[in-house]
């Protein structure tokens, strides 16, 4: 993909997954060789002109010279990615990144607030997001006996499951882009237990990663400690520095950073402003996973990130 003056040029080999109204053109009729069909969002008020070329089935969009600066900027932002990076593996958080279990979590904390005489269940739910129940039930409910702690973790997670975890936008589409060539190069690193995580993923329709899960049972320290994402990189057999961590929680973003990975924040449970002020310092920031696409390139994963 190249850009010169006010022309955006996309080769037919470019594969993009972009938001917005789509104009899909079959360019194979202009070339002797079959070509992939780029899907390009067009903003109708900009009214760009489209030129077709028989050279490798390429397509160009010309922005008229009389466009205002704001219109021209809008066109570039609509089509051009914020970043294209190549990594060895992608390490996903689960709750708040791939699935939404918010109703169940709030309901469970309401129950535990009554049982343990806690003051503000909603505030606790926000404060503990992304952390292990093993740590948060100790901190807020003062449960220190291991057997009781395990029982209460199971009870809490059962209530969350009853709340019905649901799929978040873009999650399945992105995961499907990682199979089959790079199916061993992604995993899910969650603060949930090994009892809850597979059930929640199954309920939301997300396949278990071929590399296996990293759950709270697999690490001695939870997020924001780097241990969970170091374990995730190990699951995929790669260097943590060559991984992309995808997270919605501040504790998880800090965990990924501490592990040495690049981090991508999704603003599904935490506002953009809160993340930026948190000190988590993510490398990239998007609203949700519909702004991210991936493809296998020479055994690695090329990730395209849109604003």
UniProtKB/TrEMBL annotation:
GO molecular function terms listed in the Swiss-Prot or TrEMBL record: sugar-phosphatase activity
Designated name of the protein: Sugar phosphatase YfbT
Organism for this UniProt entry: Hypsizygus marmoreus (White beech mushroom)
Gene3D superfamilies according to UniProt: HAD superfamily/HAD-like, Putative phosphatase, domain 2
Domain of life: Eukaryota
Pfam families membership: Hydrolase
Record PANTHER family: FRUCTOSE-1-PHOSPHATE PHOSPHATASE (PTHR43481), GLYCEROL-1-PHOSPHATE PHOSPHOHYDROLASE 1-RELATED (PTHR43481:SF4)
NCBIfam families: HAD-SF-IA-v3 (TIGR01509)
């Amino acid at each position: 993909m190249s850009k010169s003056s006010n022309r955006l040029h996309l080769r037919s080999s470019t594969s993009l997954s972009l938001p917005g109204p789509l104009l899909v053109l079959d360019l194979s009729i202009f070339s002797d060789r079959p070509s992939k069909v780029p899907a390009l969002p067009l903003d109708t008020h900009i009214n760009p002109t489209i030129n077709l070329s028989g050279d490798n089935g390429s397509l160009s969009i010309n922005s008229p010279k009389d466009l205002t600066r704001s219109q021209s900027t809008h066109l570039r932002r609509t089509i051009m990615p914020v970043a294209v990076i190549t990594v060895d593996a992608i390490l996903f958080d689960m709750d708040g990144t791939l699935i939404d279990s918010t109703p169940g979590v709030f309901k469970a904390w309401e129950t535990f607030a009554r049982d343990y005489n806690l003051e503000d269940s909603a505030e606790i739910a926000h404060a503990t997001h992304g952390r292990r129940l093993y740590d948060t039930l100790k901190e807020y409910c003062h449960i220190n006996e291991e057997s009781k702690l395990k029982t209460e973790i199971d009870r809490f997670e059962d209530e969350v499951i009853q709340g019905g975890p649901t799929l978040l936008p873009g999650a399945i589409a992105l995961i499907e882009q990682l199979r089959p060539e790079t199916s061993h190069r992604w995993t899910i690193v969650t603060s949930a237990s090994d009892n809850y995580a597979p059930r929640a993923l199954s309920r939301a329709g997300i396949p278990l990663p071929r590399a296996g899960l990293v759950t709270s049972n697999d690490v001695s320290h939870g997020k924001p400690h780097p241990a969970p994402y170091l374990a995730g990189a190990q699951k995929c057999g790669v260097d943590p520095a060559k991984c992309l961590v995808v997270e919605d929680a501040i504790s998880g973003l800090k965990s990924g950073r501490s592990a040495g990975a690049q981090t991508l924040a999704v603003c599904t449970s935490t506002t953009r402003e809160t993340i930026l002020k948190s000190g988590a310092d993510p490398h990239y920031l998007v609203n949700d996973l519909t702004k991210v696409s991936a493809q296998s390139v020479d055994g690695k994963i090329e990730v395209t990130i849109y604003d």
